[in-house]
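Hi C.,

You asked whether I'd gotten around to modeling the 500-residue construct. I have! Everything is below, sequence then structure, no commentary in between.
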Amino acid sequence: MNRSRLVRVLLVSVALSGTVALSGCNTADGPLPMSAKAARPLSEKMVKEIESKNMDKESPILVRTFKEESELEVWKQDRTGHYALLKTYPICRWSGELGPKIKEGDRQAPEGFYNITPGQMNPNSQYYLSFDLGYPNAFDRAHGRTGAQLMVHGDCSSRGCYSMTDEQISEIYALGRDAFFGGQKSFQVQAYPFRMTAQNFAKHRDNPNIPFWKMLKKGNDHFEVTQQEPRVSVCEKHYVFDAEARGGRGPLSFSAAGKCPAYEVPEDIATPVREKEHRDEIQIAELTRRGTPISPVRTGADGGMHPVFVAAVKRNQIGVAPQEALFVSTPPGTIPTTVRPPRLPELAGTVAMENVAPAPAAKPEPNTRMAITEPEKPAARSTSFFGSLFSSKTERPAEPAAEKPAEKKPPLLSRMATAVGLRKPDPKEAASKPQTRVASHGAIKSKTAEATPPKPAEAKAEPQPAAAPAPAPVAAPTAMSGAAPVVPTGTFDGRWSGLR
């Protein structure tokens, strides 16, 4: 190790070990030895991956985050001097909605361009390891935005941060640490709401943040066409990328809220950026014309989680270290048992949802069945139309009300005939013949039949036609002259025809 590199390592080590514990997303849990977490070397697998992509272990890095896709990319400078994608990490948790952070407590994860210095790396984070994004930056302060200690950290928990698993942040932290050891003074984080594609801009065309996102897209385009870290400045409350003084007249001075100085963008950057922007605008217009569905401005989900972690939560793979031999698709890190996933439809009812077991299924009310079936029983015992008509609807007796003995009261027609002198009273008739009552549909029903309730099917059956009346007997000698003869009592007409 040469002398200059040794000095850099010592300075970075002092900066890392001297970082104080922060509040918010990054509170302290006591001093931790550097060797336990912050000084853990990169895995042999990652070192081989770096070498296979023509990179050095200590070459500069650049980080990009995408909320909607829940992904974090680490780019690393290769031996040609350009940045190339090293690895894409699924984000375990971010909070809020798409859009920038505005004020303290809004749970929004920041969007914009941030620089991370060795002093922003926290080896003593409560959330395993972390680095501070440096929010608010010059752009945020120019817009009066508030908040602090917005991090990228472990523990899969977010209140305005980008949260990874402990295993993921250990590797990302080591990549940043080694880049500082290699001489990088700060690495850039580009935080986006989504990947800056025409499809996504067409989907979110009605979002009020579109002007802000188009400004972020310009920085994204500078990076993608050059594969170099864009130089970021702020003036007139806008981001400015790769600005240089006109005619090479020296360094520029930028004021975040003040007027922009006279500057220009080198033509070898400006031309390909304009061409890309033109292609994207044509594609956005075409997608809009085709009626690309518009995404809602607010989802109510409170952030997001990468699908690989959503699937693990649905499997209740919580607190289980990654074991590729057991699972076809395993999350890249341990999901803590205290995870609070976003309110996504696909996670509704899962055991880990909001760290609360799902509510048990509602049991039927104990009286529900009785309320449906109990009133049917008295109705089945009803013996007549008039009996059911005048029965109580709120309180039905278990048995029909007792009636006076039939033998003490002769039939109605007999009493009427006796009263008008059509026949003589017969004391034995009441005792020998059952009392009859008029039933619905004109059918005659005896008191004896009331003792056995009819089946429901029989009660609904149509009455059979009455048999033809027998020949009328010769009138008794005692009958009055002109009186109607006595007829059988088998039908309705037979019973009442004498009174018509």
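If it helps when you're writing up: Residues 267-289 form the longest helix (23 residues).

Thanks,
B.
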